[in-house]
Specification:
Blueprint (H helix, E strand, L loop, with lengths): L10 E6 L5 H11 L3 E5 H10 L3 H11 L6 H14 L39 H4 L7 E5 L5 H8 L6 E6 L2 H9 L1 E4 L4 E4 L26 H24 L3 E5 L3 H16 L1
């Protein structure tokens, strides 16, 4: 595969229905544009929980209780990751509430601070590197227009891609997917079928279908996605950074996506 060099920082978000292939497109973009990296809010949360950091311990309590992790905590994780990579200098403010030395996610002041970043005389955009090596695809956040607005206060995303594949095609793709749970090997009865139906090629053990790959589960996830994605995409369209692409397969979408990223950043 040929590669291309970015000339300025690309800060990208991919939006699409469950099963549309966001992960596939992200991997292909990073292969074609080696300066791109992945920043996943989910991975950052899991890493902090696994490593038992102060924030991770607090997050684990919140998730165990069935509550959602506060937006400000996720923003703090993302900003911390960018700073660790050297893409954000120390003058950038931190969202409130930020984890204290004790690891608490709860603001020390009144509850309003949980929803609004603290005032700052410095501009967050000025603190973020525009070097092409500071390019990334942000995954898992934001999911709502409110989160997008909060994120924009700190990180100027400059391309949001809306990926669209007809729902009946996505449904056929995911309901044809079977896994060998112990190894994680994935099969698809449409284009990557096991040698023996229902059995893993290497071990001969039974394959299973993940709960997320069942039609009822997928339709419920789709309903929730559509509820939140419409205002999210409208918000980014209002910012002038939304680009839409559609295709019946990932292979159909990828060339168009690579061309658009190259046009904007190379």
């Amino acid at each position: 595969m040929t590669t291309s060099r970015l000339k300025r920082a690309a800060r990208i978000i991919l939006v699409g229905a469950p099963g549309v292939g966001k992960g596939t497109q992200a991997e292909r973009l990073m292969k074609h544009f080696p300066q791109l990296s992945a920043v996943s809010s989910g991975d950052l949360l899991r890493d902090n929980v696994r490593n038992k950091t102060p924030l991770g311990l607090e997050v684990e309590k919140i998730m165990t209780s069935g509550n959602l992790v506060p937006d400000a905590a996720i923003l703090s994780l993302i900003l911390s990751e960018l700073k660790t990579k050297g893409w954000l200098n120390g003058s950038s403010p931190s969202p409130s509430p930020s984890p204290s030395s004790s690891g608490s996610l709860h603001p020390a002041s009144d509850s309003a601070s949980a929803h609004s970043p603290p005032p700052s005389s410095s501009s967050p955009e000025e603190s973020l590197s525009n070097s092409p090596t500071a390019s990334f695809i942000l995954d898992g956040f934001p999911r709502t227009s409110t989160q997008a607005s909060k994120l924009a206060s700190y990180i100027p995303i400059n391309l949001v891609v809306s990926l669209h594949t007809p729902h009946e095609i996505i449904l056929q793709r995911i309901t044809s997917r079977w896994v060998h749970a112990p190894s994680g090997r994935v099969y698809n009865t449409t284009f990557n079928a096991p040698k023996v139906a229902g059995r893993d090629d290497l071990t001969g053990e039974a394959l299973s279908q993940r709960e997320d790959d069942r039609e009822k589960t997928w339709r419920e996830r789709l309903r929730k996605f559509e509820e939140t994605s419409r205002p999210l995409l409208e918000w980014y369209e209002g910012q002038g950074i939304l680009w839409r692409v559609q295709g019946r397969s990932s292979d159909e979408i990828t060339p168009r996506l690579v061309e658009e990223v190259g046009r904007r950043f190379c």
